[in-house]
UniProtKB/TrEMBL annotation:
Residues 191-347 form the Glycosyl transferase family domain. One of its GO terms (molecular function) is glycosyltransferase activity. It comes from Halosimplex rubrum. InterPro entries: Glyco_trans_1, Glyco_trans_4-like_N. This is Glycosyltransferase family 4 protein. Residues 22-176 form the Glycosyltransferase subfamily 4-like N-terminal domain. Keywords: Transferase. SUPFAM superfamilies: UDP-Glycosyltransferase/glycogen phosphorylase. Pfam families: Glyco_transf_4, Glycos_transf_1.
Length: 371
């Protein structure tokens, strides 16, 4: 659908899209925003001016966003953003990271809630305190709420007494690059390796990955190294639960840091096993990306992961390093199990494509604009 087919003027709260090394939720927000912009001529992004390069041929309004900082962005969001949206005559304001102005602008709001991890305390106390105030207000003042899983929808209904008919579930997509065998940029990786991809958050259970891998190394002749891919710790997630100095001193653990999408594609394709024993996920894109690339997955049996991954993963108790080690070992040792998980993983990932998701977002935004 293009702007020629709809007269809806969509505004996007693009405050969170200014990060240089975005985490999963912000990457998803960027993907949704980019694809909506391709479909709609009438779309305006409100945010810091540094996002202009990432969204060419799209109207970006940065009035009042003078300082590139999270704290200033929060203030801007509650004061200047509603005025800018009203002056721009947007029909609906889309907030892809649930960061919406509490004072109603001239247009109704659609917010996307990926999870409530910060509200639950997976962050320093001061950030959790902010979220304990902000999250209920965001949910209460939005006209429509989109969540990325039935798991997250259930949390919103149970914890905040939100009416079920106010919430719509739209599953995230896996980028086309991970399905295309002809794409990917070669990058330096070990000859054989077990892979983890994710941010340096304690809830990601990187310590469980490391300890499970070390346990396997101690009791088997495992030739693989462990590759930990992702951005380093941020101020809002300063307690990662692991000793980074110990990791950097271990010759069997490689930490390349943040990589671009084409490099990540190459890394997934050449991994022997992908391991993701996270304690809490509102969705969980990395294991689906690994599946799309033909790499079998070990995943936690918690939160939204069983809903998203279905019967295509090997599930473990994230509290058990022995279970993590055994699951990795089983996949590497059992050729039939390895082939089964590879095949079922590819099939599962095919269910999550961005085209279908954006169709749903477009319909939701248009319906909310008319409400």
């Amino acid at each position: 659908m293009t702007h020629d087919e709809t007269s809806v003027h969509i505004g996007v709260n693009a405050r969170t899209l200014m990060h240089d090394q975005p985490g999963g939720a912000i990457q998803v927000a960027h993907e949704i925003t980019t694809r909506l912009a391709r479909r709609n001529d009438g779309i305006t992004l409100f945010g810091h001016r540094n996002i202009e390069e990432a969204y060419p041929n799209t109207t970006v309004k940065s009035a009042g966003f003078a300082v590139k900082s999270q704290l200033f962005g929060l203030l801007w969001e509650q004061s200047i953003l509603p005025l800018s949206a009203a002056q721009s005559d947007v029909d609906v304001l889309f907030c892809p990271n649930a960061n919406n102005p509490f004072v109603r602008p001239a247009a109704p709001r659609v917010i996307c809630v990926h999870d409530i991890l910060n509200y639950l305390g997976y962050a320093p106390w001061y950030y959790t305190a902010i979220q304990r105030v902000r999250v209920p207000l965001s949910l209460r003042t939005a006209e429509t709420i989109v969540t990325v899983s039935e798991f997250t929808k259930g949390e919103l209904v149970d914890r905040f007494d939100i009416a079920q008919d106010k919430i719509q579930v739209v599953y995230n997509g896996v980028d086309d690059v991970f399905f295309d065998p002809g794409m990917g940029t070669e990058t330096a990786v070990p000859d054989e390796y077990v892979l983890f991809v994710g941010g340096a958050h304690k809830r990601k259970n990187i310590d469980g990955v490391v300890e499970g891998f070390k346990l396997l190394k101690r009791h088997t002749d495992l030739p693989q190294k462990l590759l930990l891919v992702g951005p380093g710790p941020r101020s809002t997630y300063d307690d990662t639960g692991i000793d980074w100095t110990d990791i950097r001193d271990d010759p069997d653990i490689v930490t390349p840091g943040y990589v671009d999408q084409q490099e990540l594609k190459y890394i997934y394709e050449h991994a022997d096993v992908f391991v993701f024993p996270s304690y809490y996920e509102g969705f969980g894109i990395p294991p689906l990306e690994a599946m799309a690339c033909g790499t079998p997955v070990v995943a936690s049996d918690r939160a939204a992961l069983p809903e998203v991954l279905g019967d295509a993963a090997e599930y473990v108790d994230p509290d058990s390093t022995r279970a993590i080690a055994d699951a990795i070992d089983s996949l590497l040792d059992d050729n039939e199990l390895y082939r089964t998980r590879t095949t079922s993983g590819r099939e599962r990932a095919q269910r999550f494509r961005w085209g279908a998701a954006i169709d749903q977002y477009q319909s939701i935004l248009e319906e909310t604009a008319k409400s």
